[in-house]
Design brief:
By secondary structure, this protein is α+β, with helices and mostly antiparallel strands. Helices cover 53% and strands 14% of the residues. It folds into 2 domains: 5-110 and 266-297, no CATH class; 112-256, no CATH class. 38% of the residues are buried.
Length: 301
């Protein structure tokens, strides 16, 4: 029992915390109650998973302790309660980590739309607020020489995604009349390639994503809310330095194949789950044996 049951609990809690049930449940709760989907998913999955596991583990330990006081066989209850507690906490922590590291990105991107043949010089960002994947027109590139960065426990790098050089390529007279930089038809620079710790603190040496891949002309949307504010600060610094507008900045990881990239993210999350399950099963086996021996040596029947 101590060898078989805790891995099942670990599996169920990890699955509940890490995969589509959590994501869909959060969206369903947020649609019916005044609460954001992340908070709703955390609360409901905790009540359905870790809380029940903790109650069962505490109950087993309490029963075992009571039986010890009465001189009755209690070793199985004490071992089971300890192993269930470890399974619950491990499944909770590892499942939550796997969700935020891999699966949340996959599910959130799947919920958003995909746009193709987007011209960043003509189309403003406000037309693509629901974009998860964008395939830009041919000749679109990252203006790495005009990158910027913001530092806050890391270097948050941004560079505009454009189809034309930012610098005015006209004659001296044109530059004098029109200014140093060419304004895109959209009147704003809203599409940005991003990355963390992939450029110098001043933005130079931008090397984020597949920046050097000549076939890359697509973007995968930034999902993490905890990073968005820092990238936005970097864009504001860029706008102040160049004197150019950024009305509705959208942040993307520059890739060649967004669909392949996001599918690989899902596969990494699934592989992480199976790896953790195998490690836990092995560790639980030795842990169960060790606990049985230890409690027996203490005179517990």
């Amino acid at each position: 029992m101590c060898i078989l049951i805790p891995p099942v609990v670990f599996f169920l809690i990890y699955w509940l915390i890490s995969f589509s049930f959590r994501h869909n449940l959060g969206l369903a709760m947020a649609s019916k109650f005044p609460i954001d989907d992340h908070t709703a998913s955390r609360l409901t999955t905790f009540l359905l998973g870790p809380l029940i596991g903790l109650i069962f583990s505490a109950s087993c330990v309490a029963i075992g302790y009571a039986r010890v006081k009465k001189g009755r066989p209690a070793r199985t209850f004490l071992c089971m309660g300890t192993l269930l507690f470890i399974a619950t906490v491990a499944g909770w922590i590892l499942g939550d980590g796997n969700y935020w590291l891999y699966m949340a990105t996959f599910y959130n991107i799947q919920d958003l739309d995909t746009y193709v043949n987007v011209n960043p010089s003509r189309e403003p960002g406000e037309s693509f607020m629901d974009a998860g994947q964008i395939y830009f027109k041919d000749s679109t590139y990252i203006a790495v020489e005009n990158a910027m960065a913001f530092r806050n426990n890391g270097v948050y790098c941004v560079a505009p995604i454009v189809r034309q050089p930012l610098a005015n390529q006209g004659s001296y007279e044109q530059v004098k009349i029109q200014g140093t930089f060419d304004m895109p038809e959209s009147g704003t620079f809203d599409f940005w390639a991003i990355g963390v710790n992939c450029c110098a603190p001043d933005g130079m040496g931008f090397s984020c994503g597949e920046y050097s891949n000549p076939y890359a002309r697509a973007g995968l949307r930034l999902i993490r809310d905890d990073q968005r504010a820092f990238f936005h600060m970097a864009v504001q610094e860029w706008s102040a330095q160049y004197g150019l507008p950024t009305k509705h900045p959208l942040f993307f990881y520059w890739v060649q194949d967004p669909l392949g990239t996001i599918t690989a993210t899902k596969e990494k999350g699934e592989m992480r789950f199976y790896t953790h399950l195998a490690i836990f099963m092995l560790g639980n086996f030795f842990g169960a044996c060790a606990l049985q021996v230890a409690t027996k040596s203490m005179g517990i029947v």
